[in-house]
């Protein structure tokens, strides 16, 4: 009877594929990275200028928006539909800026608070390009 010896390369391969125990603390770090990773990739900002006595100017910017023209049209239409009395728009601009980011500039009455714009943004974009937190 002839016995075959296992090749050394097969034995090495088997020994290198053993599962290693992972400590719970290293798993917590990995979970935190995986949970926070999508948040880090989004970039949406909201700034407000104006004295608050009669008018505010909001500038909303987001990067990575695929169809800027379509998103802009939807934002403007929805804002006019949900809060026409609280948020009358005097002037607005929406389109790509020099960097290609979506820029939505809105000149509104001071009765138009940032939370209204936050809701419009969330409804239209589902926060795909970041969550807004406009000044209230």
Which band does the percent of strand residues land in?
15-25%
Largest sheet: 4 strands, antiparallel
CATH topology of the domain at 43-125: Gyrase A, domain 2
- Structural class call reads alpha+beta
Query: Any idea of the CATH class of the domain at 43-125?
Result: Alpha Beta
How many distinct beta strands?
4
Topology as H/E string?
HHEEHEEH
**CA gyration radius, whole angstroms:** 26 Å
Our count of helices gives: 4
Shape: globular
Distance between the termini: 87 Å
What proportion of the residues is helical, as a percent range?
25-40%
| Reported CATH architecture of the domain at 43-125 | 2-Layer Sandwich
> How would you write the strand order of the largest sheet?
1-2-4-3
Task: Name the descriptors.
136 residues, alpha+beta, Gyrase A, domain 2, globular
What does this protein look like?
With 136 residues, this protein is of the alpha+beta class. 40% of the residues lie in helices and 22% in strands. The protein has 4 helices and 4 strands. Strand 1 and strand 2 (55-62) form a beta hairpin. Helix 3 (68-82) crosses helix 4.
Produce a short descriptive summary.
Helices cover 40% and strands 22% of the residues. The protein is of the alpha+beta class and 136 residues long.
Structural topology:
Elements: H1 8-16, H2 24-41, E1 44-49, E2 55-62, H3 68-82, E3 89-96, E4 102-109, H4 114-125
Antiparallel strand pairs: 1-2, 2-4, 3-4
Helix pairs in contact: 3-4
